[in-house]
Amino acid sequence: MEDRISRIIIVGGGSAGWLSAGVIAAEHRIDSQAQQPFELVLIESPDVPTIGVGEGTWPSMRTTLKRIGLSETDFIRESDASFKQGTCFRNWQSGSGKGDDDSYSHPFTVPIGYADSNLVPHWLALTDAPQFADAVTPQTALFADCLAPKQITTPEYAFMVNYGYHLDAGKFAELLRKHCTEKLGVRHVKANVLQINAAENGDIKSVTTDCAGEIAGDLFIDCTGTSSLLLGEHFKIPFQSRQQYLFNDTALAAQVPYTEENQAIQSCTHSTAQTAGWIWDIGLPTRRGTGHVYSSAHISEDEATAQLLTYIKDIAGDRAAASVVPRKIRFQPGHRREFWHRNCVAIGMSSGFIEPLEASALVLVELAAGMIAEQLPPTRAAMDIVAKRYNQKFLRHWNQIIEFLKLHYVLSARDDSPYWQDNRAATSIPEKLGEQLLLWRYRSPWHQDAEAVDDLFPSASYQYILYGMGFKTVPRHTGSYQQDQQQRQAVELFQKNAARAAQLQQALPGNRELLNKVREFGFQKL
Amino acid sequence: MNQYEVLNKDKHRQLRVKTGYGAALGDAVMHVMTYPMEFRDIQSCYPILFTKDSNTGGFFAAAVFGFESDQNLFLQDDGWDAPYIPALVQRQPFLIATGGEGDNADPKVSLDLDHPRVSQDEGEALFDTEGNATEFLDQKIALLDKLHRGLQHGSGFVDTLLRHELLEKITLDIAFNDGSKQSLQGYYCIAEERLYQLHGDVLESLNKAGYLQPVFMAVASLSRMRDIIERRNRLRV
């Protein structure tokens, strides 16, 4: 066959490049010499530092790591990883500064009975109801005491409550590199790409490098970060800004030490709203990662820095605040018009980036690599069809991310700055989200709201944000024939959830305690 | 809590150890650890399953006595109803301490002063009036010695099983005659299908390490499950 795909070139290392390499190589077992279906080469510049954004993952990362054959014990030890069970939002509703009243969570566990029962109407009918998430999942009960999602006897990647990770992106990429080159048969070329060479038909034929000559390939994966060397610069696929919906375009990142050696490690990402953005706070075993992501049109860098330092002073004291040097990262919120063009597909920041709220960056890499690995066309002729479907799917993903992230802002009642007011302006709300918000006034989000089976955010996520933020859905008055039975079932589920929460609080160790045990003993594989 | 001390003929001259078996003597346990050299004796009386240490998550082999925490179906009013009693039960309240590095690495006979078998006035004496070990203590020391060798021999057993993927999870849902149901969770057994697919070189290495026979003993021991179900059925509820 003339046009068989026999060589795939990934340009760019970092977590996007190495994760893609790992997923594709593992799926096709390119390490087995006998029947190697294609060669996989990753070209990494020795000069370009990785940006290292995206220290939070989704639970999908457990599946991805398992898929590429990494042991969870090695992953945790070498990526300085901890367990993440969701996000806790503070000061998003009123910004009154009283964090306890103005706080809600988006846990990774879906509501109890979620497959069959929508608990929202029953929760709305409760008098003296606990917070929505507390009523429907035992997970949020673990957050206060910084408890782990599993025990040391739980096998690797299995859980008692669903979890993803917080990790050190630099160390993670390093671990993936080692695994990909030593175990999975990925060829690593350290060189700078100088030039991209076109074939007669308009495809990319090869790339010319400074110290490894010309490298030809049949499929090129662009993981070059925001520079988007292949898709953006070579193919001139336009960038589509989405800043009219999501204003944040700057981040100030700072590492903060723990105040004492054995300080508890948070179970979830903390997201604390500010006057023109929000501050993330994630706990790794060795340090905390914090950062202020904000809209540069709404606040000066000095003021944004001052807010970050106030936060750091609050969690780690004056000395920590005095010694941090925040690193500034500018980004344009948006994505390329197309992601797969001819024989080139962009993964990671080369395809686009929206602010870190809900940590969607790495999950998009996992999804992209997964789809390419599963649907990799064996020939060039079939590639255009896969590309077309890929573009449709990922445009849908980007749209949903933008709508779901925007949901966090439009529901806020904060009136303390133009940023929050502008966020509620009708022109800043994506059309579909506007429609959904109208519908949800009369009924809660439920399975039928899903556009496709692989939607990134299920209706459960919308429920957690809407009712966490105090959204009002008018209870439906006309009851169905099964109403009484459903009501009884709901009461049982609420009770079952409370019992499960109490049981888990007893059984689960603290995050730090479990991470220390993983370091000492490791998880078993079964 | 446990209070371990290295056995000392001056300090512990007056101590006595209660013999016999019973819940009051600390024998009401659901399972006890065993080791490959003991499997032949264990499998004639008890199922051998694998379970995890709650502190480290590491696997160990266990002789199983019941279906729930603290349930030992072999304990009767007049003692332990089985022809063979596991060494890790017989050795109570003694143990071998191997703490320390270098010169201190020698195994030392120790005991748990807080164990219900330890007494000032009841049971077998450990030392005679001159401070010599009694026959009772000599027997216990011989047992500990055998146990120590058995544990050393078996120290690589579980890792070997895991390396060859010879363990698998077993969940037993049992309905008893009285209508009650019990689900036995957290146990693992030999993965028989994998075992029967092992190649010659692996079988040879297992055999050389002295692990092949114990693997089959563990497989055979599952027949003893029937016996403990029967014992559970005979319990007055």
Explain how this protein is built.
The complex is a heterodimer of chains A (526) and B (237). By secondary structure, chain A is α+β, with helices and mostly antiparallel strands. Chain A is globular and about 70 Å long. Chain A has helices at 14-28, 60-67, 72-78, 120-125, 132-136, 169-182, 229-234, 301-323, 361-375, 380-410, 418-424, 431-439, 459-468, 483-507, 511-520; strands at 7-11, 39-44, 82-84, 86-90, 103-107, 164-166, 187-190, 193-198, 204-209, 214-216, 219-222, 239-241, 250-256, 269-273, 277-283, 288-294, 327-330, 334-336, 340-341, 344-346, 352-353. The longest helix of chain A has 31 residues, at 380-410. In chain A, α1 packs parallel to α6 (169-182), α1 runs parallel beside α9 and α9 (361-375) packs antiparallel against α10. Chain A has a domain at 7-79 and 168-243 and 332-399: 3-Layer(bba) Sandwich (FAD/NAD(P)-binding domain). The mean pLDDT of chain A is 94. With 237 residues, chain B is of the alpha+beta class. Chain B has one domain (4-234). Chain B is globular and about 60 Å long. The A-B interface holds A 151-154, 517, 520-526 and B 52-59, 162, 167-169, 186, 188.
How are the SSEs ordered, and which strands pair?
The complex is a heterodimer of chains A (526) and B (237).
Chain A: E1 7-11, H1 14-28, E2 39-44, H2 60-67, H3 72-78, E3 82-84, E4 86-90, E5 103-107, H4 120-125, H5 132-136, E6 164-166, H6 169-182, E7 187-190, E8 193-198, E9 204-209, E10 214-216, E11 219-222, H7 229-234, E12 239-241, E13 250-256, E14 269-273, E15 277-283, E16 288-294, H8 301-323, E17 327-330, E18 334-336, E19 340-341, E20 344-346, E21 352-353, H9 361-375, H10 380-410, H11 418-424, H12 431-439, H13 459-468, H14 483-507, H15 511-520
Parallel strand pairs in A: 1-2, 1-11, 2-7, 4-14, 11-20
Antiparallel strand pairs in A: 3-6, 4-5, 8-9, 9-10, 12-18, 13-16, 13-17, 14-15, 15-16, 18-21, 19-20
Chain B: E1 4-6, E2 16-17, E3 31-33, H1 39-43, E4 48-52, E5 59-64, E6 75-76, E7 79-80, H2 87-90, E8 94-97, E9 108-112, E10 118-119, E11 124-125, H3 135-153, H4 157-163, E12 167-175, E13 181-190, H5 192-195, H6 200-208, H7 212-221, H8 225-234
Antiparallel strand pairs in B: 1-9, 2-10, 2-11, 3-5, 4-5, 4-13, 6-7, 8-9, 12-13
